[in-house]
Amino acid sequence: MSQKQELILINISGNDRPGVTASLTEILAKNNAVILDIGQADIHNNLSLGILFQSTSEDSGNIMKELLFKSYELDVNIRFNPITEEEYEDWVGMQGKNRYIITILSRKLTAKQIAGISNIISDQGMNIDDIKRLTGRIPLDENKRSPKASVEFSVRGTPRDKNQMQREFLELSSQVEMDISFQEESMFRRMRRLICFDMDSTLIQTEVIDELAVRAGVGDQVKAITEAAMRGEIDFCESFRQRCQLLKGLDVSVMQEIAENLPITEGADRLMRILKKVGFKIAILSGGFTYFGNYLKQKWGIDYVFANELEVEDGILTGNYLGDIVDGKRKAELLRFIAQIENVDLRQTVAVGDGANDLPMISIAGLGIAFHAKPKVKETAKQSISTLGLDGILYFLGYKDSHLDEQI
């Protein structure tokens, strides 16, 4: 006759040091307990360890007695909580279902940010399973602190109103100066392989066509057209034709001077170095110009550049361009094309841009990010970054500073 089985959840807390987990699990091993679940966290050298085990009724009494004595010897606290079979089966049934990752980015982590996120999660009837800090440990001396902070929440449940949740995240992000990423947890989130960037006002902190226009003496005219196009007020292709015409007569040598002085966006060098190290394929899909895309390609070892080619005759810009214009529709087509070449599922792709012409590629990518974007773009994109530099993307991808600093 088989003995009755019991399920016991133990929670251990106290000062962490080597050997605590080993000593406690040795007791379970000696009594032939079956471990059904285990989790451990360490916050400022304080241990929080949970173990759910199964044993016979006879053995469980001995186990709890030995654990109690051992916890006293180790100077840690221990609590016992019996779990019913029904509760356990309900828990097992939730496996793999409706899990989300919420990542927050800011210059400085505050209690208001955490409270705001937690309240929205709770109001949607969801539960926080895990919270971890992705950026490095924070020195007390503010002068030594990194100008970025990121925390990741692992959340379980089904939002009552997902669109409302996104709207509340967007509103909260502007109130407390942070960015919020809300992603479904899946194997694709952990297997991103291709990332496509807009160039102007994304990888670089300028619109190159505006720089060329200043040299041509038509800066104000071109800048006004550029801004209207980025806001989505003018068709991109038409705005591009108008701007190119205004560049007619400019000496091509100006392009080299501009390329050598491009203002690189904060965090771009670190991001590119890490993406290359971990094996990403990287593309520039730009409504700007091939000359400058190729300059960045050489700088960072980028794999693909698709942009627009200016027509040159006798060292002078003619005001025309060659080939098809790389507009928003074309960017989305190119993302699909490169993913096919690299044998990458679209759910494994990332797209980053700031303008309305980036929305088509942002919308089809597995992770689409509006970077320091115009209001219309930020409202439309599911994810956005407005508080940090480009290396904030690393935290949306789930990387931790501690791992990056050790290995990259």
Give an account of the 3D structure.
By secondary structure, the chain is of the alpha/beta class. The protein has a seven-stranded mixed beta sheet with strand order 12-11-10-9-13-14-15. A four-stranded antiparallel beta sheet has the order 2-3-1-4. It has 16 helices and 15 strands.
Number of helices: 16
Strand order of the largest sheet: 12-11-10-9-13-14-15
- Provide the low-confidence segments as ranges: none
Fraction of residues in helix: 25-40%
Name the assembly state.
Answer: single chain
Principal-axes geometry comes out as: elongated
Which structural class best describes the helix and strand composition? alpha/beta
Strand tally, please?
A: 15
Mean pLDDT: 91
Rg value? 27 Å
- State which percent range the strand residues make up: 25-35%
Distance between the termini: 58 Å
Largest sheet: 7 strands, mixed
Helices, strands, pairings?
Layout: E1 5-15, H1 20-30, E2 34-43, E3 46-56, H2 57-74, E4 77-83, H3 85-93, E5 99-106, H4 111-123, E6 127-133, E7 149-156, H5 162-175, E8 179-184, E9 194-197, H6 208-216, H7 219-230, H8 236-246, H9 253-259, H10 268-277, E10 281-289, H11 290-300, E11 304-313, E12 316-322, H12 328-341, E13 349-353, H13 359-364, E14 367-371, H14 375-380, E15 383-385, H15 393-396, H16 401-407
